[in-house]
Design brief:
Blueprint lengths: L3 H39 L14 E13 L16 E8 L2 E6 L5 E4 L3 E7 L1 E2 L2 E2 L11 E7 L5 E8 L5 H5 L4
Antiparallel strand pairs: 1-2, 1-9, 2-3, 3-4, 5-8, 6-7, 8-9
């Protein structure tokens, strides 16, 4: 049953598979190139301290949405595993903020490098609409300065958005 229609369909399917494969390869190459460019900006992240004091804001469960280069809320950091969304627990200590991520390395944000903790409507390509009557329904964004001098925003969406008030209390 080698009719011209069947042969044409098979050729079309093969060309389509090749085009899709090339597009995926180009996207992966772009992601790696972006990571190489950002690697120089990010540098080494602060190491997690061996001991910390009692939590000043208790554990908040939610989703780590990723990091972005400040002030561009949509310029996702792709270095290491900073660009991947995952379940996380956010805890504030007198020495800094710990972001314990599921399946990834924890992120330690030293207290002296934190410049702002605020709510935003979106970060890293994730937009959460807010209502005027409930302004804290969006994303908890932590702006901090890396040892390299680059400012970065870390986005977190809590399971219970009412917990944002505990995080914003110290910042007002």
């Amino acid at each position: 049953m080698n009719t011209p229609t069947m042969v044409g369909s098979l050729i079309f399917a093969a060309v389509l598979v090749v085009i899709i494969g090339l597009l995926i390869r180009l996207m992966m190459r772009g992601w790696r190139h972006r990571g190489q460019l950002q690697d120089a900006l990010i540098g080494a992240l602060p190491s997690v301290p061996d001991t910390v004091g009692a939590p000043s804001v208790g554990a908040t469960r939610g989703v780590y949405l990723g990091c972005t280069l400040a002030p561009k809320w949509n310029d996702r950091v792709v270095v290491s595993d900073l660009g991947y969304r995952t379940k996380a627990v956010l805890t504030r200590y007198p020495e800094g903020i710990m972001v314990q991520r599921s399946g990834a390395q924890p992120i330690w944000i030293p207290e002296d490098s934190i410049t702002a903790v605020r709510t935003e409507s979106g970060i890293a390509g994730r937009v959460i609409p807010t209502l005027p009557t409930r302004p804290h329904d969006g994303v908890l964004a932590i702006r901090w300065r890396l040892p390299s001098g680059t400012e970065m925003d870390t986005g977190f969406r809590a399971d219970d958005r009412a917990e944002y008030t505990r995080w914003l209390k110290d910042e007002r």
